[in-house]
Amino acid sequence: MLEIKFVRENTELVRKALKTRGNDFPLDSLLKVDSERRALIQEVEDLRNLRNRVSEEIGKQKKAKKDSEQLISQMKDVASRIKRLNNLLVEKEASLNRYLFSIPNLPHFSVPFGRDETENPVIRTWGDILEFDFRPAPHWEVGEALNILDFERAAKIAGARFAVYRGLGAKLERALINFMLDLHQDLHGYKEILPPFIVNEKSLLGTGQLPKFADDLFKLENRNYYLIPTAEVPITNLHRDEVLEEDILPIHYVSFTPCFRSEAGSHGKDTRGLVRLHQFNKVELVKFCQPEYSSAELESLLLDAEEVLQKLRLPYRTIELCTGDLGFSASKTYDIEVWLPGQNRFCEISSCSNFDSFQARRANIRYRPKGQTKTRLLHTLNGSGLAVGRTVVGILENYQQKDGSVLIPEVLIKYMQGVERIAK
C-alpha cells in the first residue's frame, strides 16, 4: 500500500509511475477523499478545542455561582456535531483505505518500460537445449503412458485442472520437494517454516491478494477463511503487527505448501497437463530485510531459485518484467522460465519479487534500527524456489527417452531411493 502523505506530496511522480503500468488509477478521487478527510479532522479538532475552552469557562462560572445553562446548551450542540463529524470521518477513512488498497505498487526506477509481457527483456539463459532424434512428447503424454499421471480420475474426483500422481510420479514430486527444501536450508541458509494452509482475510489484505484478486481465491463457505494461493501469504504474515529488532535481520524463510487458485481469467490457457492447476505444490522463499539491502537480496534470491534448475540440469532463461507486466504488489520482478521441448516453448517456473515497503505497510511490519527508538517499515521479498509441478513437467519433457522412459536427474536419485529411470 502506498503512503497517502507520499501520494499527496508527490502526486505527479506517482501518476507518471502508475501510468507506466498501462492503466489509469483514481488518484484524483483518492486525493479528493483525503482532502475531505483532513478537513473533517481539522473541524473536529477545532470543535474539541472550543469545547475545552468553554468547559473551563463553565467551571469558572459555576465556581462564581453564575448561570451557565446557555453555555452548557451550546456544548451539547457541539458534542452532537463532533459525534456526527466523527461518523463522517469513519466513512471517509474507509473510503480512503479502499482507494489505497486498490492502487498497485510503484515500479522501481530500474524496471524497464514496456506495455506487456512481449516486451520483457531476457537477462540471461542457462543450459543447452537438447536436440532429440525423435519427436519429444508433452509431459501429459509421457506421464499417462508411464502410468504416473492420471488426469481422467482426477477429473472424476474433483473436476478439470486437477491431477493424480501415481507410483513413481508421486515419488518424484515428493523427491523434488525434499531436494528443494534441503538445498535452500543447507546451502542457502533459509529457515524452514510449515504454516497453516488456511488464512484469514487480514492475512490476504497484508500481502495484496485482497481486495483486488478475490475472484482468484478459494473461500470457505460461511467462514472468513481462505485456502492459501501461495506460501507467501502465511509466511509474510508471520510478522504482521510486529516490530523486529535490526539484529535479527535479514530473515530468510523457506516453506513447502500446497497452493490453491481458481485461475480466474485463464480460460483456454494450459488446459492440459500440470502447468495451470487449481491445486499444486510449491516451495517458496520469503525474505525480510532493511530497505537499503533489498535490491541485493532480490538478486541473491533469484540466484537461489536458479540454482535448483542448474542442479537438475534443466535449461532455462531469466527475464525481467517490464512496467506493464509487473504484479500488483511488486516493485521489481524476475521470472525464470524452464524450457519444455515437448511443447517447444519456455514456461514460467519461478517469479522472484521485491515489494519494497508495500506489503510491510499493509501488514504493519516494522523494525527498530540499532540505537534508535523510532521504528521503520522493512522490505519484503519472495520467490518460488520452485513450483514443484512445473519442475516435474520440465523433467518429464527434458529427460524423456526414445523408448518412452524418463531418466531421473542425478541429484534426485538419492531422494528416489536409487531409482534412476521411470519406465513402463
Structure characterization notes:
- The protein is α+β, with helices and mostly antiparallel strands.
- The protein folds into two domains: 99 residues, Orthogonal Bundle (Helix Hairpins); 306 residues, BirA Bifunctional Protein, domain 2, CATH 3.30.930.
- Helix content is 40%, strand content 20%.
- The protein has twelve helices and 17 strands.
- The strands form five sheets. The protein has an eight-stranded mixed β-sheet with strand order 1-10-11-12-15-9-8-4.
- A hairpin with a 4-residue loop joins strand 11 and strand 12.
- Helix 7 packs across helix 12.
- The chain is elongated and about 105 Å long.
- The two termini are 53 Å apart.
Short description:
The protein has 424 residues and is of the alpha+beta class.
**How far from one another are the termini?**
53 Å
Number of strands: 17
CATH class descriptor name of the largest domain: Alpha Beta
Arithmetic mean pLDDT: 95
Order of helices and strands: HHHHEHEHEHEEHEHEEEHEEEHEEEHEE
The number of helical segments is: 12
Shape: elongated
Give the helix level as a range of percent.
25-40%
Strand content: 15-25%
Overall tally of domains: 2
Q: The biggest beta sheet, please?
A: 8 strands, mixed
In CATH terms, the superfamily of the largest domain is Bira Bifunctional Protein, Domain 2
| CATH topology type of the largest domain | BirA Bifunctional Protein, domain 2
What are the segments in which pLDDT stays under 50 over at least 5 consecutive residues?
none
Question: What class, by secondary structure content?
Answer: alpha+beta
Rg, nearest Å: 27 Å
CATH architecture of the largest domain: 2-Layer Sandwich
Q: In order across it, which strands form the biggest sheet?
A: 1-10-11-12-15-9-8-4
